[in-house]
Amino acid sequence: MLRYKRILLKLSGESLMGEQGYGIDPLQLNTYCEQILEVSQLGVEIGIVIGGGNIFRGLKGVDKGFDRVKGDTMGMLATVINSIALESMFETLGGKARVLTAIEMGPVGERFSKTKALDLLGKGYIVILSGGTGNPFFTTDTAAVLRAVEIEADVMLKGTRVDGIYSADPEKFPDAVKYDQITYDEALEKNLNIMDLTAFALSKENKLPLIVFDMNKRGNLKKVISGENIGTIVKIK
Predict the structure, then answer these.
(1) What is the mean pLDDT of residues 31-42?
(2) Beta strands 45-50; 6-11: pairing state
């Protein structure tokens, strides 16, 4: 039994680096795509938003002298590079995938529209939604929530390298407490660093459930889709 029929999977760009420290690790890319394709073949409709921090992060560019708008534009282009890598690997593994872009990019991918995305999802394609929102000053977390709402996803899954949401960074504070579930209001009160405030507000306003889980542990994505209590679920109330 599948708990979710249509999902939006948010991945960080850094997750593609593997052990390299920069860029795209083909082995890590392959591992992710195999797991996602397995879930797709179960009949789950999948949209993906991936960040670009493994290549370029806009705010870091500002620290080095870039104009914020140009820096964010470079970051959005980095997400497109990662999206093309995902698309290529899915096809190599025998799956169907399509990149849709937030801005016009001709041969790279068709411009995003809800109608096009839903049509592709209905035909069994994994739809990779690239280029952020197409606007500066918005994170890929916000883009992921926006696209999740637009494609009417049942849930947004945020794949990270930790197994859920903690009271503090578990890599720095070994005594941090893990939450199995929490509400948006509680997360705000506790000032938990799950997503930026814009993404958070958009999620809450649109009653979008969020699950944060460890994507690096093989099999976890399938467990989440199957309804197992993996990670932390953020509920409306």
Answers:
(1) 97
(2) parallel
Closest CA to 29 of 50, 49, 15, 8: 15
C-beta atoms surrounding 97 within 10 Å: 24
Strands lying side by side in the sheet with 210-214:
110-111, 97-101, 126-130, 45-50, 6-11, 155-160, 210-214, 232-235, 181-183
Q: How far is CA 8 from CA 19, 139, 229, in A?
A: 26, 16, 18
Answer whether residue 1 is part of any domain.
no
Q: Which residues contact 96 (CB under 8 A, 6 or more apart)?
A: 90, 123, 124, 125, 126
Task: Quote the number of domains for the chain.
Answer: 1
Q: Are the C-beta atoms of residues 219 and 31 closer than 8 Å to each other?
A: no
Residue 56 has pLDDT above 70, yes or no: yes
Token pair 């209001």: residue: 185
Helix H or strand E encompassing 178: strand 178-179
CATH number at residue 201: 3.40.1160.10
Q: Dihedral, CA atoms, 24, 84, 146, 22, nearest 10 degrees? A: 10
pTM above 0.90, yes or no: yes
Residue-wise pLDDT tens digits, 98-136: 999 999 998 999 999 999 999 999 999 999 999 999 999
User: Residue 33 has which token pair?
Assistant: 């795509």
**Of 207, 125, 200, 120, which Cα lies nearest the Cα of 158?**
200
Domain of residue 207, residue span: 6-235
* β-pair type (178-179, 165-166): antiparallel
